[in-house]
Amino acid sequence: MQVDASTGLIAGVSFMESPNRSPRPKRSEPELIVVHGISLPAGQFGGGYIGKLFTNQLDTRDDPRFAALAGLQVSAHLLIARDGHLTQFVSFDERAWHAGESVFQGRHECNDFSIGIELEGTDASGFRDIQYERLESVIRLLREVYPRIGSDRVVGHCHIAPGRKSDPGPDFDWGRLQRNLGITRPITQRRVLAT
């Protein structure tokens, strides 16, 4: 795999363009990876609903549990499905709308300087080996392309939005990333109210 520097996209992977994105601040580049977990409907896998949500194509009448998602505009840079299939939605040159209210080392608005990677799964389901393998290869690639992503800059959504988000869940295998990639086990950030 490689990132096309002219587009900010990983060459050769599926791409579904999300409108839920915006420019990064000037002179800002990715320096943090945020790992998420998602399933739609909650606890069910497949069906293409996540891609539809990220591209504003989700028909909330398809399932009563989608009602709360009406009008929601979110995205991530990447989605790793249960079978390991990788889809990109937003160029790494732009902000994807994945982190929401968040803080990392005292900096708010993590979307400005992060890459969001969704794994299809739930806090309770855990994730498959093939998803971890794909995640590891993506993290290796992104750390090569964006050297500001240090070993202490791969975190879960739960670490940057404590009390608000729990994904990728307590059973996510951070020890595996530590062993295989030398990633420092993330620390939950102290919640600081924005001024």
TrEMBL record:
Domain named N-acetylmuramoyl-L-alanine amidase: residues: 18-169
Catalyzed reactions per annotation: Hydrolyzes the link between N-acetylmuramoyl residues and L-amino acid residues in certain cell-wall glycopeptides
SUPFAM superfamilies to which the protein is assigned, alphabetical: N-acetylmuramoyl-L-alanine amidase-like
Domain of life: Bacteria
Cofactor: Zn(2+)
EC number: 3.5.1.28
Keywords of this entry: Cell wall biogenesis/degradation, Cytoplasm, Hydrolase, Metal-binding, Zinc
Annotated compartments: Cytoplasm
A Pfam family annotated for this UniProt entry: Amidase_2
Main localisation: cytoplasm
Group of enzyme by EC: hydrolase
GO MF annotation terms: N-acetylmuramoyl-L-alanine amidase activity
Family affiliation: Belongs to the N-acetylmuramoyl-L-alanine amidase 2 family.
Protein name per UniProt: 1,6-anhydro-N-acetylmuramyl-L-alanine amidase AmpD
Native organism taxonomy: Bacteria, Pseudomonadati, Pseudomonadota, Gammaproteobacteria, Chromatiales
